[in-house]
Amino acid sequence: MAPKIVDKEVKKMEIVHAAIKVFSEKGMVKAKMVDIAREAGIGKGTIYEYFRSKEDVFASGFQIFFQAMQDQIETAISSTSDPVEKLRLLITVSFKSFLQHGSDLAMIMMDFWAEGIRNKDEKILDAVDLRKIYYEFRVIITSIIDNGIKKGVFRPVDSHHVASLLIGALDGVMLQWIMDHKAIDLEKITDSVIDLFINCLYKK
Amino acid sequence: MAPKIVDKEVKKMEIVHAAIKVFSEKGMVKAKMVDIAREAGIGKGTIYEYFRSKEDVFASGFQIFFQAMQDQIETAISSTSDPVEKLRLLITVSFKSFLQHGSDLAMIMMDFWAEGIRNKDEKILDAVDLRKIYYEFRVIITSIIDNGIKKGVFRPVDSHHVASLLIGALDGVMLQWIMDHKAIDLEKITDSVIDLFINCLYKK
DNA sequence: TATATTTAACCGACTGGTCGGTCAACAATA
DNA sequence: TATTGTTGACCGACCAGTCGGTTAAATATA
Q: What's the rounded Cα separation, in Å, for the pair B73 and B86?
């Protein structure tokens, strides 16, 4: 009357994390369902007990990945109310989380970008909505800058443009680092980013 | 005794340009050989008279695409010897070339990135060597900045880091623009990039 | 406690479709 | 007619997703 019971949610997470690992090593296209199954230590058919399709697995991985990153950043910047310190933390934490995960996790981000941009018009995967993710990121940074301007710490600038620029710089530098670890010293570049953005925002 | 003659090089270029169009619309994976053939107005088999594989077609497209971009930028910055003006032109031309081509061409760049990063260890496609391309780009910008420092126009900075940062900012802002044209005004952001980088480099 | 029963959970052989690459036949030219 | 150039039907490797069969945990029964 009562058969084998497993925690569906826990197992689903196990599969997603196995999938994230495989995606990061092989990329979305070359990663096969059987690879994910093997990594999770289960049979291929079992995946379909928890996910509707490969895309569904991918979307779940995407969401978990970016949610974790966003949480990490928001936790860090909520520790202070000083706009300068918030920006400094945001930049540092962004680069740090990349450094600590190595290039595997960076690789999967590349696929998320590629997939997210390619499917930006199709509403199939609403979890993979990079527009929303970037919008939210921009709002966070814009509000820090606006607050800094209001407090008279920063000179008046177009906060939206500067926010876009900061996000772009973070992404773009990471992109170069993914391509060539030896050419880009992520730790030292952090200081340059902070120097350029914060010093240039300071009111003189 | 003298059979049909076609200009192999011209036809090869026709195929590559058809391929670039198809790649930009569908992406590397979804673009089929038969699509490229149809776009070029030829049979599928003919492509294999000019290219060894799909990857070979992709690599050729890659090379032509980036070479054109690099030529455009180098032509622009060679028109002046003023470091400030060189930087201003480099930023403007980079964004302009993106704007004029629309998002199709931006899409293919995304695939080049993804493909280039994924195969960065495999030496199969040495034409698709993003490391080299970014290195060369960095050299160009570094030399402009160093020259500016030498002339006493710019304050002394780590030119390599600032160059990486500028390239990153250009790429990263374009990435956001690709994702959401409405959220990013590429023309107006150009001014912010110039403002931030050039003003902050100025010696006071 | 041993055994039977129930059924969620699991699995991997199979299917159906896709697509890169080949090649034998065909077309055009001089 | 000899040679270059073209072609698309065909092949086979590949793989996402399916499905019928199996396993084993929890309970019921004696």
A: 10
